[in-house]
Amino acid sequence: MKEIISEDFKDALLLATDPDASEEYFPAYVAPFWQDQKLVATDGHLMVAVDEELALKYVSKPAYKDLDKPNVDEMLHTLSDDSKYDLRRDVLEKGIEAVPLKDYGECEECHGKGEVSVDYTAKNGEEYSLPAECPICSGTGRVYLHPGQKVPVDEFPVLIDGQYFRSDLIYKILRIMQLLDIERMSYHTDKDRDEEDYSKAGFRYRTDDGYIYIAVMPHGIDEGKAFWPCDKCLRKKDAVKIKLTLPLG
Q: How many whole angstroms from its chain centre is CA 237?
C-alpha cells in the first residue's frame, strides 16, 4: 500500500457508514468509532475496521467516540481464520463492469426521499417544521450525474465463492480498496459447503502497522424467487460472478 492521504482514509471509512441512521438508536452507523483498539465503521451490512496503530497515522484518537456495541470482535471473528483465496482489485474492477449501470444517483439534499423540511415562523412567533418537495430533485429523490457518467445499479446480485452479495456493497469494497491503494485482500468465510445461506464473509489486508478488515453480509436466495426488489426481477442467473485467486507465494 503506497502512502495515502488522511482524506482518502476518512472517505474510505465513511463509505461503510449510514449518515441517515438515527444517532439516538444507531450511533454506530452514523460515524466511525473506536472499540478494542480498532477504528470501526459500519452501516449494519458492511463493516470496515482498522487496527489502532495504523488508523492513528491518519486520524486523531479524540476525533471519534468509543462505543461497545455492536460487538466488533464477533463480526470479525471469521477474518482471523486462515485463508485459501485472495480477492484481487483488478479482478473486482473487471467484474463490476458487468453490473448494469445507471446515470443517476441519490439526491444528497433529501437523501433519496424526495422531501425536505422547511422551517416556518408564524406571526405569533410559533415555529413550525413543514414537509416540502425537495427543490434539488423536484421530489424524485434522484439527481442525474454528469453527462456520460454512470455508476452500478443498487442491489444487483454479485456471486463470490458460492455466496450472493449486493452489488452496492461490493462496489463500496472496491472503492475502499482503491482509496487505500489495496491490490489484493485475503478472503475469509465461515460458510458450510453443504448449506446455501451463509452468515459471515470478509476480507483482510496486512500492513506493517496493522490490519485492515472488511466484513460484508452475504444474502441467501431461494430457488426460482426474485432476488431483491430492483429495476427488474433478479434471479440467480442474473448474478455477476467475481473469481477469487490463489494467494501470492
A: 24
